[in-house]
Amino acid sequence: MKLKLKCPGCGATYRLTERPPVDHVRCPTCKTRFPVDPPPPAKAEDKPARRFALFDRRSRDAAGLISTWLLFAVAVGFLTAALLGLG
Length: 87
Known about the structure:
By secondary structure, the protein is an alpha+beta fold. The chain folds into two domains: 3-35, no CATH class; 43-87. It is built from one helix and four strands, in the order ββββα.
């Protein structure tokens, strides 16, 4: 993340490639110590959470559908066996 700092003392502008690990920096030109702005808060992405929620719901629906059809097939098998006198 590129960071642009401006010294409040002399107005010099500095570009940093990453945020320094300290809260304050010192201007090399005028030796004024000034605070570094905190990084912006990370945005929470809603799309991955929705994607997983849809995936979970679809998985539950598919599992419910398969178990329903399996139960139906077993019941039909037992009824067929009972009607044919195999059981």
